[in-house]
Amino acid sequence: MVQIIKGMDVIQPIKQVIIQSIENGIKPCLGIIRIGNRSSEISYEKSVIKQLQPLGIVVESIVLPEDVTQEMFDQTFDDVNQNSSINGILLLKPLPQHLSIDYVEKNIDPLKDVDCIGNVNMSKLYKDGKKGFLPCTAEAVLEILEHINFDLVGKKVALVGFGMVIGRPAAHLLVERGATVTICHKDTKDLVKECIDADLIIVATGVIGLISSQHVKPGAVIVDVGINVDENGKLCGDVCYDAVQSVAGYITPVPGGVGTVTTYTLAKHTLNACIMQK
């Protein structure tokens, strides 16, 4: 019988630490920088505010017009980066095509870089030794695996998707923890063959229904990072959720799975950033 990994179950220990810290006088503030008014980014921003503010984390939104110049964008970022009252920075992406993120990556304070977009924390991610803040979604995947006591040592992992947000950092973090990782992407010839022997499948492609029951060996763990909208306007992942339940041992739902854990990981990072900046 498949077990559904609900994000709200995973985040309870994280939530309690945050609440206790704030009750003890810590007052974190997250600054969200948004360019334009794309509905997906507004929706995510509202979700972050809805989850973080009840915890006692202040969220300040900085909104710039879609046609903002590079100079104005960089200056606004500088203002947020140097504002001592803002402990963490979340830059909503993708940026408009006319803007470059290079200045942000080079100059963001590593102690405010709560989603690991800067060069310093990204460099630490791929080196041995102490890390900076990890990308929130990649860390959320690790939190989920820890919640179900999934020991990565010696396990076969099929990682479907090789983007900068989840695929690449997750691949490195999984290997560091002893897993054998097969990386799949849009040019992989036989996805079923690459997935069917995996103890763990992590999928983050943005392709609705990419992973079906034929990809999954009995008892495998499925972590669905995809966020899509189906033809009925409902949120769904990259996995054929109903079909895969008949085969998998564990599965994360969409919504209510990885996304929930990601948001609370962001909250945890913002709290830790505030503590480190004292």
Question: What's the gist of this structure?
Answer:
This protein is an alpha/beta fold and 278 residues long. It contains eleven helices and eleven strands. The strands form three sheets. The chain has a six-stranded parallel beta sheet. A three-stranded parallel beta sheet has the order 3-2-4, sandwiched between helices.
Question: Would you spell out the secondary-structure blueprint of this structure?
Answer:
Elements: E1 3-4, H1 7-10, H2 12-23, E2 29-35, H3 39-52, E3 58-64, H4 70-81, E4 88-91, H5 102-107, H6 119-125, H7 136-147, E5 156-160, H8 167-176, E6 180-184, H9 191-195, E7 200-203, E8 221-224, E9 228-229, E10 235-236, H10 241-244, E11 250-251, H11 258-276
Parallel strand pairs: 1-11, 2-3, 2-4, 5-6, 5-7, 7-8, 8-11
Antiparallel strand pairs: 9-10
Helix pairs in contact: 2-11, 7-8, 7-11
Describe the model.
This protein has 278 residues and is an alpha/beta fold. The chain contains 11 helices and 11 strands. It has 2 domains: 26-112, 3-Layer(aba) Sandwich (Rossmann fold), CATH 3.40.50; 136-259, 3-Layer(aba) Sandwich (Rossmann fold), CATH 3.40.50.720. Helices cover 38% and strands 16% of the residues. Strands 1-11-8-7-5-6 form a 6-stranded parallel β-sheet. Strands 3-2-4 form a 3-stranded parallel β-sheet, sandwiched between helices. It has a two-stranded antiparallel sheet with strand order 9-10. Strand 9 (228-229) and strand 10 form a beta hairpin. The termini are far apart. The mean pLDDT is 96.
